[in-house]
Design goal:
The protein is mainly alpha-helical. The protein has six helices and four strands, in the order ααβααβαββα. The strands form two sheets. A two-stranded parallel ribbon has the order 1-2.
Length: 144
């Protein structure tokens, strides 16, 4: 991902994490601050009800800023403290490297899944996006 594809406030964090790509000196005053865009993405992740999911693109569209890659980058950098398993790929494939942890959360929360066919690689379930996808509904009406 290039730093140019990140929203402005996330770009500084990217620069701090990748000084070799930054076109300016490090910004130590920003090192502890969570970028505003990242805060907004994480707030949306926390709004998603148990048993439901939003895609990276859904989150970006809901925020009216960034895109799926920017949301994915925020989730990769900062998503561990929120229900990260509720922000997913549009195809319903479980997050590579975290499949079993995510699957455990989905089963506990009753998230709709499609069982994998025996021909599927690894025989892992996928999310049933038609049934699991959340559009932001009633709880999100006061979003900023």
């Amino acid at each position: 991902m290039s730093e140019e594809s990140l929203p402005d406030d996330t770009r500084a964090e990217y620069d701090d994490a990748h000084p070799e790509h930054a076109g300016h000196p490090e910004h130590p005053e920003r090192a502890d601050a969570l970028p505003e865009y990242a805060e907004r993405v994480l707030e949306v992740a926390e709004l998603i009800p148990p048993g439901r999911v939003m895609t990276y693109g859904d989150v970006a569209e809901w925020l009216e800023e960034g895109g799926p890659r920017q949301v994915g980058r925020v989730m990769a950098l900062y998503g561990g403290a929120v229900p990260w398993w509720r922000v997913v790929r549009a195809d319903g494939v479980l997050l590579p490297g975290h499949e079993l942890r995510a699957l455990e959360h989905y089963r506990v929360e009753g998230t709709p899944l499609k069982e994998a066919s025996k021909a599927a690689e690894g025989h892992l379930s996928r999310l049933d996006m038609r049934r699991a996808r959340w559009d932001g509904g009633e709880r999100a009406q006061g979003h900023t």
